[in-house]
């Protein structure tokens, strides 16, 4: 087994020992779908949703929630703590580079999102007839793009925040407005025009559009793709520039 | 064979000069100590040697290669101050994981045994005591079977028994042929373990010598105190070349002198049938040498 695989598995094991992480990334999205799926109005098909029911849209929102919690709260706090406690520094003294630990964290979190996606869409389909996406590949691409935007922001937070606690505080501060604009509390298609247009340029809303599009088999919106790649490039580059190892 | 060579090392952080001018060499198989007051530049010096920082000027060679050469990371073991692990990783998991980082790792079970961690293998890092964390940290530094081990403040936070156990372990590591660079502020530790010591003060070398040599620099003044069994004339002792000062402190006599002071005094007293009761002898220690060398002028 390569060092990278061992490191990723080790990060997995450590993360799964954190009950809060497991709850919010794997159980909470399922819980959300199950509760909302039993609300009668969720079965309605408002014209703004282009043929989808409210519950169909919420499958993506529930997954977006998991991505947001990982990208804005979980990962930045963990990485900032790794720096704060000298874990990255210890890595620097071994033949393994500290970058590999960051890569293992990213891989582990991405894998968690994918597991969560399978769980969410399976339960949503079996229990509430949420359609199986026309193109699963487009959905996968949508999820990956959503993660790349969210994780790049997370890396930048980890780079800028001096401690794990500050990283968590800033992440939480960003989490609520971004999740609101992405339609966690009300589908963004039902929001006033202004909020929708602002939302277009936020990563979670753009990711949400891509995931809903994949569900109905529409070709992906270029604006959403551009926005997410923009976050990846800009936040990613800034994170690389500002990341401190100690 | 020279294992570490530091020549005119200088390093500043912004306006603060951490190391001004430090040079020394460490020979193979040596236990070499770096002593100095807080903020003297000890940690910066070892961090430059370990390749964690780049020197502003000067030259550092480790095992024949420039410090920071990636090839050195597998050949040097480093234990840093304030370097922790994830709270939820167990001792065993950490040892296994870090073993995988090295091309030629030591048997981690054996190391855990040597460091008294066998009973703690299933304990998470966050639940370990300060001493246990420190011992795990030392174990991680030795996992790669390093040729050189750099240990920064290795016994800080250990209780006296654990400290003595660690000293035994360090001697054992040297016996395996590992060259050791120790940063410490415990004089007893330096005196007991180190073959040679460099004293760093205000970013420069204040002295470089064996522990004995450093103590001699503090002067070999000795102080004897005793209660004589019978009175005697002071001249009996002040006539001795070894004796510099004699004073009466109630029933006791205090003598300050040098050379073979104790032997000279006892012989004279014995000749006159006087017994020196409650006898104490104080000699200069590395503590005195340290204070002497790093006293602010």
From TrEMBL, chain A:
InterPro entries: ABC-2_transporter, ABC2_TM, ABC2_TM_bact-type, ABC_2_transport. Its main location: membrane. The keyword Cytoplasm does not apply. GO terms for biological process: response to antibiotic. Keywords: Antibiotic resistance, Cell membrane, Membrane, Transmembrane, Transmembrane helix, Transport. It is a multi-pass membrane protein. Residues 20-246 form the ABC transmembrane type-2 domain. Belongs to the ABC-2 integral membrane protein family. PANTHER family: DOXORUBICIN RESISTANCE ABC TRANSPORTER PERMEASE PROTEIN DRRC-RELATED, TRANSPORT PERMEASE PROTEIN. This is Transport permease protein. It comes from Actinoplanes campanulatus.
TrEMBL record, chain B:
It is a peripheral membrane protein. Keywords: Antibiotic resistance, ATP-binding, Cell membrane, Membrane, Nucleotide-binding, Translocase, Transport. Gene3D superfamilies: P-loop containing nucleotide triphosphate hydrolases. GO terms for cellular component: plasma membrane. InterPro entries: AAA+_ATPase, ABC_transporter-like_ATP-bd, ABC_transporter-like_CS, ABC_transporter_ATP-binding, P-loop_NTPase. GO terms for biological process: response to antibiotic. SUPFAM superfamilies: P-loop containing nucleoside triphosphate hydrolases (SSF52540). GO terms for molecular function: ATP binding; ATP hydrolysis activity. Residues 4-227 form the ABC transporter domain. Its main location: membrane. It is found in: Cell membrane. This is ABC-2 type transport system ATP-binding protein.
